[in-house]
Structure formats: structure tokens, C-alpha cells
Amino acid sequence: MAFEDIASAKAFAPAHITGFFEVHDHNDPLRKGSTGCGIVLNAGIETTVFCGEGIEKTEISLNGQRVEGQTIRTVAEALTDSPVKVECKAEIPIESGLGASGAGALGTAYALNSVLGLNLTANRLNQVAHLAEVKNSSGLGDVAAQSLGGIVIRKTPGAPGIGIYDRIPSGEENVWCVVLGELSTSSVLNRKEKVESINLAGETAMNKLMEKPTMENFMLCSREFSIETGLSDDKIAEVIEAVESADGIASQAMLGNTVFAMAQKPEDNEIADVLSDFGNVLQYRINTGSVKLVRKNRKVQTYLNTRS
């Protein structure tokens, strides 16, 4: 075994919770996507990309475990013909409606842009991530929101640079989550009858939100959406009611078996106490920022087989 010179770069992309949405199909995947509204969080996924002649095949890991990572793999294949190693460290639960696939796709795109010296603009990198999500049915609108930060209203569908977005002004308020189980986004998006009910409820929610675009109304519209679509089960409804009894507001993260909640009053930690009866409570804040490079392109000497 000999030491190899491996170039690496690291990027962070934030999580995103969609409160409600409407699916928009299109022959052009750049124009395919969703409208709706959601919250970008201060936690997310940190992605490190390694490149070098000694890397023989593309490998992806999540929290130290080898995964297929098809959405991330699609991003890598779109940006380079060379094999790369991608290591993702998640600060958020996976397949729980927190936009993990979009965060991983964005982090991979930005890190590859740095390590390979591609000199692509943010819009182009965001579009690569969006296309990967659409191709793999892992998401439709997370990338658009994650590329902006805050409480993002996706007014028209499509990738960044094509879709029209707005934001509800906000500070870095607390957001509490409790995960009740995993739910695959593709398992819902690939069911035609479910998409139809989602679109009807999503259009109604958007109209109500635009009448009064506030954080509180967003939460209320999201709660109604989860009920009208039938996506929320009895357990989720029970958690939402418990939060409301503590003067909080809650809804279901789309698409996930997760409840997210916010306080009517700042720093009201009673919400966390209520949620703790249903599982491990995760506390985040609204992130008004976006994707960022943590470490730019650098070379390290390492044994390649220590990353296999």
C-alpha cells in the first residue's frame, strides 16, 4: 500500500421542512417540481468529497455506513466522469421529511465544484441537485428552498433560476420536531391517486397563505393540508393536538412521519416538554442562510483503503 494524494472539499447544506405542496409535472425536468411553502433549518448534512487518480469507483457513505445514495450518485455523474468518494454526515434524521436527499445533493454539487475547479455558478449547481432529485423521485422542491434559506414560498415550480420564489420574513425562531417513523418520498410521489388529493389541498393551502403570508398562517395552512390529504394518521393528529393544548402550533413534515412545531411565544420550551411524551425531541432554528463551503479544495495524503 502506498500513500495517495487525494484532493477534498467539504460543504454544508441545510435541512428543509415542507408544510404543504402541490406537484407540477413537466417534460422538462428543470421545470418539473412543486409549489408550496416550507422552513429551512440550521441543521443539515455536511458532505465531504474526495477526488484522486487512485480512486477506482464512486462510493458514498452516510454517517460511516456505505449506502447506494442514488441521488448523490446522479449529481456526481453529472459533474464528472471520474470516480469520487462522498462522505455525508447527517445532523438530521433520514427519510423523515427534513429534506435530507436535497441537502446531500446540494452539498455534493458544491463540494465537487470546489475540488474539481469547475467554476460553476450557484444557480447551475442548484439545478444539478434539483435534476438529481427529480430523476430519482426523492424530492421536488427542497433544493429550491435550501438554496435560499428562511421560510420559502415556492410560487411557481422549477429549479432555481427558473421557478419563482418568495419568503415570509422571519428571525431564527425555534422549531421542534419529533420523528414517529420513516417515510420514503418516492413511495408517495409514485402514487397517482395520492398526488391528485395532494394537489387539490396544496392549491387551497397556497391561496389561504397568500391572503395572509405570516409564519402563524403558514403553520395553520400546513396543518389543514396534512388532514385534508389524509397523509397524517391518528398518531400525528394526537401529537398536533397535544402541542396546541400547550399554546403551540404544529403540523406534519412533508413527506415524512414527523411532526414539527413552533411556539406562539418566543422561547416557549413547554412545546419540547409536550413533544417528549411522543419520542426524542429534536430542536432546531430557522436558518436564514443557505449552502456554504466549509473547507475549500485541499490535498491530503491518505491510504485509500481506509475510506472503503
Q: What report would you give on this structure?
A:
- There is one protein chain.
- The protein has 308 residues and is an alpha+beta fold.
- It starts with a strand and ends in a 6-residue tail after the last strand.
- The chain has two domains: 4-167 and 290-307, Ribosomal Protein S5, domain 2, CATH 3.30.230; 172-285, Alpha-Beta Plaits, CATH 3.30.70.
- The chain is built from nine helices and twelve strands.
Cα(first) to Cα(last) distance is 14 Å
Q: CATH architecture of the largest domain, please?
A: 2-Layer Sandwich
Number of helices: 9
- Give the uncertain stretches in residue-range form: 303-308
Largest sheet, in brief, is: 8 strands, mixed
Per CATH, the class of the largest domain reads Alpha Beta
Integer average pLDDT: 92
Q: Tell me the strand percentage band.
A: 25-35%
Alpha-beta content class: alpha+beta
Shape: globular
Please estimate the helix content. 25-40%
- What string gives the helices and strands in order? EEEEHEHHHEEEHHHHEEHEE
Number of domains: 2
CATH structural fold name of the largest domain: Ribosomal Protein S5, domain 2
Overall number of strands: 12
Q: Whole-number radius of gyration?
A: 19 Å
